[in-house]
């Protein structure tokens, strides 16, 4: 139990089932789903979630179908998150409000995990770096008319902030609540519950979503860390979402590397076995299949043991710092695994797996070649679309449209379909400023799949005459 004399967040507010952008309505008597189960289904059935099947997890445009995409990664993270949420609910059951079950906590975390990578651009983290590089290089020239805060907001592309924008603004109900998820799920989603105004590379909301961030934090009773600043302590369940992601990419990225022959099966097996007890090792040995080509089966069996341990470790870590998490004083940048003692094998396996990935996977030559190629793709896309956005903003903001828009820019904007910035569809309460137009074309580019981004870039270079089929 959290001491009552400290300022703490309350589970009564943190688990709000009210929906962003939607007034309360009477549920159908035939609908027995919980509000949080509905969140799961709204995310899964969204177009943005479907596109994750063609987006990079670690290895861009991999031909091997056993390698993870953002979709398979998100589904696996969601299952680990669900287990974490339910396990935590049993540990804090005396603190939870009446009517909230372990399944509810499991569903909130599962929903947030499903959406946690929904804002990532093509080519994964390499794509984020490529977009940021382009903006840092070209932004000072293109964005002269923008204020300092707006320049920073554009020049550091952040997938977490783009994801928050998508689920609250642009997906399904455009500028009217997005997917209209519950506040509890939105809070759990916010890994970085502060806007781009707060110094640092990472943030969870662009300036366009700053008011929504404030609304979510207020509804959930999240603790403000700076008076008058858009900067809040994390929702407690956001730590579980982060832990689920850490668990999956630490372990499963190694499996992908074995699949692609970047790391040997024996090296990964040795790393994972090293953190198991002698009893667990002996038990596993009886279930492993001999022969190198059986590595998929063997890694799956080893993974089960490892996952059992690290899931319990994450929950133990949460309980070790429960008071700090609930009071908003758990230090920024620390995960639940940082709250476990250094000698604990459950902490060791996550750290060791991440270290192996950094040293052996991210320097792989084929991966480097693909990431370098992604820079050229983004350079082509951003040059064309951002120039068109600026042209359109100047056209829309000229008093009698005396500033014309070029033929090429008008064609490029037509690719956005009905969502291209025009007089009939400005964001509520705003005009189509240069910043707002740029934000919309960034929505379009970051929402592309890997293969569609390559296709459009090639089209802009004239490859449309090659007869290549449209993705």
TrEMBL record:
Task: Extract one GO BP annotation from the record.
Answer: dGTP catabolic process
- Please give one Gene Ontology molecular function term for this protein: dGTPase activity
**Which SMART domains did the record assign?**
HDc
Annotated organism of origin: Allochromatium humboldtianum
Name this polypeptide is given: Deoxyguanosinetriphosphate triphosphohydrolase
The record's listing under CDD domains reads:
HDc
Hydrolase keyword on record? yes
Highest taxon listed in the record's lineage: Bacteria
- Where do the HD domain residues begin and end? 70-250
PANTHER family linked: DEOXYGUANOSINETRIPHOSPHATE TRIPHOSPHOHYDROLASE-LIKE PROTEIN 2, DEOXYNUCLEOSIDE TRIPHOSPHATE TRIPHOSPHOHYDROLASE
């Amino acid at each position: 139990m959290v001491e009552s004399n400290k300022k703490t967040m309350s589970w009564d507010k943190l688990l709000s089932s009210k929906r962003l952008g939607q007034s309360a309505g009477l549920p159908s008597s035939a609908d027995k789903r919980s509000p949080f189960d509905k969140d799961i289904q709204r995310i899964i059935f969204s177009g943005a979630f479907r596109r994750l099947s063609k987006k990079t997890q670690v290895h861009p445009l991999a031909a091997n179908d056993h390698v993870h995409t953002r979709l398979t990664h998100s589904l696996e993270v969601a299952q680990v998150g669900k287990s974490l949420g339910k396990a935590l609910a049993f540990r804090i059951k005396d603190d939870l409000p009446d009517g909230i079950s372990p399944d509810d906590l499991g569903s909130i975390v599962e929903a947030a995990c499903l959406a946690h990578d929904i804002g990532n651009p093509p080519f994964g983290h390499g794509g984020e770096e490529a977009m940021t590089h382009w903006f840092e290089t070209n932004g000072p020239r293109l964005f002269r008319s923008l204020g300092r805060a707006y320049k920073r907001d554009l020049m550091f592309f952040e997938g977490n902030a783009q994801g928050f924008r998508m689920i609250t603004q642009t997906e399904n109900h455009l500028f009217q609540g997005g997917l209209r998820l519950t506040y509890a799920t939105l809070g759990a989603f916010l890994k970085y519950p502060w806007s781009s105004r707060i110094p640092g590379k990472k943030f969870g909301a662009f300036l366009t979503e700053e008011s929504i961030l404030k609304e979510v934090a207020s509804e959930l009773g999240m603790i403000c860390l700076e008076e008058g600043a858009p900067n809040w302590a994390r929702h407690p369940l956001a730590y579980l979402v982060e832990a689920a992601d850490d668990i999956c990419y630490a372990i499963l990225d190694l499996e992908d590397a074995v699949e692609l022959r970047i790391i040997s099966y024996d090296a990964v097996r040795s790393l994972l076995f090293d953190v198991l007890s002698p009893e667990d090792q002996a038990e596993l040995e009886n279930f492993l299949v001999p022969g190198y080509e059986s590595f998929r089966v063997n890694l799956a069996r080893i993974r089960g043991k490892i996952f059992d341990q690290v899931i319990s470790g994450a929950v133990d870590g949460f309980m070790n710092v429960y008071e700090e998490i609930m009071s908003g004083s758990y230090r920024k940048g620390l995960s639940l695994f940082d709250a476990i003692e250094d000698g604990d094998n459950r902490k060791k396996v996550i750290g060791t797996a991440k270290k192996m990935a950094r040293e052996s996977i991210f320097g792989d030559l084929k991966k480097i070649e693909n990431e370098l190629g992604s820079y050229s793709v983004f350079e082509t896309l951003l040059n064309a679309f951002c120039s068109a956005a600026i042209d359109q903003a100047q056209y829309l903001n000229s008093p009698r449209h005396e500033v014309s828009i070029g033929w090429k820019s008008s064609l490029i904007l037509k690719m956005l379909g009905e969502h291209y910035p025009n007089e009939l569809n400005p964001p509520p309460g705003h005009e189509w400023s240069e910043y707002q137009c740029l934000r919309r074309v960034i929505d379009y580019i970051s929402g592309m799949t890997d293969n569609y981004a390559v296709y459009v870039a090639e089209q802009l270079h004239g490859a449309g005459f090659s007869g290549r089929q449209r993705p």
